[in-house]
Design goal:
MFS, MFS transporter, 70% helix, Growth Hormone, Chain: A, MFS_dom, 454 residues, single chain, globular, mainly alpha, transport
Amino acid sequence: MGHPQRPQRRVRRRRYPRQRRPRPGNRVQHLPDRPPGNLVTGQATAYTHHAAQNAPRRLGRRGAFWAAASVLALALWSSGAPSVLYPIYAEKWDLTPVMVTSVFATYQLALIVVLPLFGNLSDLFGRRRIMITGTALIGASALVFTFAPHVAYLYAGRVLQGAGAGLAMGAATASLIENNTTSSPRFASTTATVATSTGLTLALFLSGLCAEYLPLPLVWSYIVLLALAATSITALLLSHDDRPPAKSRWQPLSPFVPAGIRTGFVIATLSVALAYCVGAIFLSLGAHMIDQFTHTNNTAIIGTLLATSSAFIGITGLFLARFNALTLIWVGVGLTLVSLAIMATASEFQSLPLFLTWCVIGGIAYSLAFTGGLGLINRLAPEHHRGATLSLLYLIAYTLQAVTAIGIGALATTTNLGTAVGAAAIALTVLSATVAVLLLADRRTPPHTEPASS
């Protein structure tokens, strides 16, 4: 018998997994030694993904808002940092009152030069870039003060502070308005008031403590200022780039107020100037007034007393967001008149309780006048001219502040401190009356309308 034929075995072929071709748009992982993907097709690679993960996260509108607020606080911190130390400088280098007040006013004089030339830079190149530049100048001023061997360095430091504030403050105020995430358009002006008062309060208080209880009393206040400037620059670098899409050619800022808001601009500017002029007396000669009333050279006590006024500026500002700007100006002018009367009486009778009363009432009046004036101009100025308009407001306000500081210092040098304070009270009473007359005249025009949001 023949053997049956066995069925022929089928040879199985080993199947290998087919390599899929990458589809366009799919993410392909590469080995570390391979080049980063196809630049022609634009395929994403692991390298670009890794770089994106490690890129610094940008701050949103809220972060940009508070970064701008920190710049305003820093500008006023730099302005008030030497105030507690002026008596120490005067004793160390034998400075007269007019020299002290002229050092103080150099800050304002630098602003007067910078604002007309560069006040509109933030409208052209973005708020963020100009704030960074101004903050860097403030940080450089801290180094000049730290190593100052004689009074000329104080003038140089104040020039840098004024130039930095001149660049940064208009840009920071505009940035607050444009990055305001709340439904209240007045929240930006209130935040500006609280930020500036917080910076000034902490500067006065910490400068007094450092000078009294730490070695090198003329150094530590500026070391703190330098560290804060570096922190603000870091926050600004992390915020979004706000350069305008259309490039414009720079030219010096000409005195320009948009048509239709000129009366409101004058009211707002004089209201802010009134607050600044009272602050000039307080910051330039406040420490000498305390020394005359209390006969103490304890810088911690002097700093605490001076910080009382600026603290009330900030505390009052917390409650002003819902009030109409014109109402705030009216009440601010009235309280300023009361505070000037208390200031003149305190100087006449050399009364420390009256001086403290002036600090409290004057701080509240400052907050009302400053917030009202800034709130009025914020809602009236068109967005494409806002930086230039705010810079012009600060230019006029700081000019009047410098004149007040130098004038009261000259009178205190040629006569005495009491006579100088009395003359300043009379001059600022006239300025207050001028604001009141303009407010009455403005009632005859149609009321200003506020936008629903900033």
